[in-house]
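Weekly modeling sync, notes
Attendees: AB, CL, MP (scribe)

Item 1: holo prediction request
CL wants a bound-state model with zinc ion before deciding which constructs to order. AB pointed out that an apo prediction alone won't tell us much about the pocket. Agreed to run with the ligand included and paste results into these notes for async review.

Input as submitted:
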Amino acid sequence: MRKVVLHAPGDVRVEDVERPTIVEPTDAVIRLAATCICGSDLWPYRGADEVPQPQPMGHEYCGVVEEIGADVRTLEVGQFVVGSFFASDGTCEICLSGYQTGCVHRQPGAPTGAQAEYARIPLADGTLVATPGQPDADLIPSLLAASDVLGTGWFGSVAAEAGPGKTVAVVGDGAVGLCAVLAARQLGAERVILFSRHADRQALGREFGATDIVEERGEEGVAKVKEMTGGLGAHSVVEAVGTHESMHQAIGSTRAGGHVGFVGVLHDVAITGDDIFTTHVHLHGGPAPVRRFLPDLIRLIWDRTIDPGKVFDLTLPIEQAAEGYRAMDERRATKVLLTL
Ligand SMILES: [Zn+2]
């Protein structure tokens, strides 16, 4: 089968390798319907994250169950399933409380890599959610988005306590930020402010439910949001970038007593006591427990209430994965779908 492997920063290759097989009796092997490149894949691609190399890439997946281990109870071969980037048992206290990414048995969701034709998924019963049937082809991008960017944006909005009557601001106009906009509106937010400087992302943000766009960043962006909210700041702010600047833009844009949901993978972020003591801002985030939201997200996609697959603005065959990485690295694409 074909699989994307990172050999060194900037060097991704598509290789012919053996299909993964069942290792643990709780595993499943799935045949992916499509795969994609994540913004977080750019960190190791740029050499900003040290990872062992060669490294199989990709952690977003949906597809058909090809094989199950002897202890898998709830899934059948042939079912179409969606999972997320961490595998979880679904039975420990942390999973039952809705924090599957903190599962006591958590492990990578697709340890063999998900930018591939097949992937081994550990803890299949806890990790995978079956769709009501075989999806129409046009639903595949949205189901794939549910696997990470939609689930992550959704958690960002939930962690920020987006809801009816609330003004929500979203820092980050990548796929996760755009999905957070969609989530905030679905959760009933009255006003959704998207920070964005890119015309195409602003347009999709508006389609997903943004009511206002702010092009300013940093202190200027904070001042703009304050000005738009009677000097108070937003009730809820989603941080979907992960840099020091974006985190402080998020904290600064939040009103006293408000909530920041942070889901960008943090890199070199420093938060002082003053940043949180004097502001009365709640901070909650981390790796999104996508699994908590998957049943609801699958239903919304299945019923065609939401179409998060629109975040994919470039589709390439997996053989051109290297071009997909370049396009995302150079910001020529928001998110790249790889067909198999
Ligand atoms: Zn667990």
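Recorded for review: The chain has a mean pLDDT of 97.
Action items: CL to compare against the apo run; MP to circulate these notes.
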